[in-house]
């Protein structure tokens, strides 16, 4: 299980109908598992607007930014939990 941090950009209500959210998942350079990302996201594909994968070699990280449509809190929590259970994930940020 990942002991990496889970961060939020602010207080989240039970339903996010007012705005979209982003989920940022980070791993060490060459530690990102693309198949693992899709394994987590596939059941929630209707909630996803865009996925952007970036390498930040100067920081030593690779990063996946997932743009989400308005999504119920319990679904967001489930996605975050699934990412945090992957040993290669160093941090998960919901904003």
Would you mind describing this structure in some detail?
- With 95 residues, this protein is α+β, with helices and mostly antiparallel strands.
- It has a single domain, classed as ACT domain (Alpha-Beta Plaits, 2-Layer Sandwich), CATH 3.30.70.260.
- The protein is built from two helices and five strands.
- A five-stranded mixed sheet has the order 1-5-2-4-3, with helices on one face.
- The N terminus is likely disordered.
Task: Set down the secondary structure blueprint.
Layout: E1 6-8, E2 21-28, H1 34-41, E3 48-56, E4 61-68, H2 73-84, E5 91-94
Parallel strand pairs: 1-5
Antiparallel strand pairs: 2-4, 2-5, 3-4
Q: Tell me, what is the CATH class? A: Alpha Beta
| Percent range of helical residues | 10-25%
Under CATH, the homologous superfamily reads ACT domain
Distance between the termini: 23 Å
Q: Average pLDDT across residues?
A: 83
In a nutshell, what does this entry contain?
It is built from 2 helices and 5 strands, in the order E-E-H-E-E-H-E. It is α+β, with helices and mostly antiparallel strands and 95 residues long.
List keywords for this structure.
alpha+beta; Alpha-Beta Plaits; disordered N terminus; single chain; five-stranded mixed β-sheet
